[in-house]
Amino acid sequence: MTAKLVVGVDGHGSGDRALDYAQQLAGKIDACELLVVYIIEWSPYSFQTPEENEQRHKRREKEIAIAQERIIQPAVEKLTKEGLNARGIVRHGNVADALNEVAVKEKAEQIIVARASERSLSQRIFGSSTANLVMEASVPVTVVG
Question: What is the pTM of this model?
Answer without folding.
Answer: 0.86
